[in-house]
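Cross-check.
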Amino acid sequence: MESFSLLMHGLSSALDPMILFYALIGVTLGTAVGVLPGIGPALTVALLLPVTYGLDPAGSLIMFAGIYYGGMYGGSTTSILLNTPGESASIVTAIEGNKMARQGRGGPALATAAIGSFVAGLIATLLLAFLAPQVVKLALTLGPREYFALMVLAFVTVSATFGDSALRGLTSLFVGLALACVGIDGLTGAARLTYGVPQLMDGIEITTLAVALFAVGEALAIAGAAEAETGMHRIKGQVWMSASDWARSWKPWLRGTLIGFPIGAMPAGGAEIGTLLSYVTEKKLARNPEEFGHGAIEGVAGPEAANNASAAGTLVPLLTLGLPTSATAAIMLAGFQQFGLQPGPLLFVMNAELVWTLIASLLIANLMLVVLNLPLIGLWIKLLSIPRPWLYGGILLFATLGTIGVNPSPVELGMLILFGVTGYGMRLYGYPVAPVVIGLILGPLAEQQLRRALAIAQGDWWTMVSTPVSAVLLGVSVVFLVVPVLMRLRGRGEVLSQAAGDAD
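Predicted model, tokenized:
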């Protein structure tokens, strides 16, 4: 009941006109970037980080969350009509959605995707509201050993579990951890890896790194890639869902929600896993499994519900533990830190009104997204006519001006260019960029907890496995590190590669 009353109080704050305005901006931008192939929520939030530096913290964070939710909605549009996923979590939607569009059933496919996203987002946000306080109570009982083990688990799962290569993921992570060492040592006060540059005394700016890797690196990568020709499938025939479509969709919506939410909440990275599991589940439970691969509506309804439910699930470890499980969540964490806020158990105590306003605004954002998506599909499709040179030229200009506006320094501009070129090179050679940002953000926190635990134990390293929770978490980390390697050696790495993605 306490959670319900807090949610109602947050809802009353979320109905403030300025908060509603920020939410509307967020979901509109999110839908737009979800529609545009190659531009994901992570890129957009990274671009807006320097712009929102001087804005209201609550409004900015609500806008970021709206972008996250909106990106999940928008990605389904191009997946269905163009067979080109706007973001990585919509890849599974394209399998059946585009087949439906080719058969003249693009309208029902878009409708079940939008309604399924709304249902999943609504249920998952309510689960977030009631589950988060329980996780906070649990988190308050954890000590430095447990927190360090939890961060190790996040490092391993985000970096090494999914993707083409565990070594490449871990390499990216260690680059981020090395960058996290730059600046003043919090314990001794000594300068580390600054090389006599005064601007590096405060460490590498998370905003600069995020903008460079996601915005500049992505723009350079897209500009350097050959653009594939895709044909638009116009919406023909029936636009709305029939009674049969409704009957075949509502169970996948609920199942997708139940699959996507816990997957998003686990420190194992992203919505792609949930969408893939949902698709496999619907195929196994379908009355007519032979329709799969030829335009089965269940294959759109389930994954889209799982997609949006995972977005809400991602906010559970982010808000309660300060652990990001996706690229967008990592940059949102940087947004919190930008305003002097550290997500974790104390956030619900020190900034309770902000947290509950954020959660309540997600309910409103979901309603906004349904209104924006179904009637305005034609408008979103027109965005695809924007010439790519203009689009990515604008992104580069926006990224440069935003970064320089926050920190007008030649050193900062040089780092933006250096990290941007690095991001391009990483994409070119198959290195994931998300672990670098996560390493920079969580690295200092992990170091702090490790030092604290060792100080309490007077330097005894066995203390890291002396409690059941820390021992189990570190054991699970080892399993998550070893099992994917064995799967790849046995030739089963395709599933892991498909599940990987930095866009969300």
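The first helix runs from residue 2 to 14. The mean pLDDT is 81. Passed to J.P. for a second look.
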